[in-house]
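[Meeting: bench + compute handoff]

Bench side (C.D.) handed over the final construct sequence. Compute side (W.E.) agreed to return the predicted structure before the next meeting so the bench team could plan truncations. Sequence as handed over:
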Amino acid sequence: MSATGYALLGFVTWTLLLLTWMEILRTHLVLNGRIPANGFAPDNAGLSPFLQRLARAHANCIEGLPIFGSLMALAMMTSRTGITDPLAYWFLVARLLQSAIHLTSTSPNAVKARFSAFAVQMVIGLYWAVELLIS
């Protein structure tokens, strides 16, 4: 599998792991009687700040997956991973870093670092889109 394929698999797996982690924590809250099974808002409003950040980190992945995943899938389907492979792992690292920062802090410096990681993804995605379009 190409670097693009592994990066896409990593992105999907990371998104799934965040979802699984969130649901394990939610299940724990339900089983311990802290919250009714139907008492969850999609953003985990009313729960701990960590659970709220976890929901948002997962949502960020869900929001980005169709865009960036489509670019990677298109490169693979058209045999043009030569465009995406060189930056595929950098993209995945930036994605993981953005989520990790999101999970650990909301300080002003952390927010700036988180945005920087997202900006890296946007620049890579725009580069891929242009190169796929013109090649």
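W.E. noted at the follow-up: The chain has one domain: 3-134. C.D. will use this when planning the next construct.
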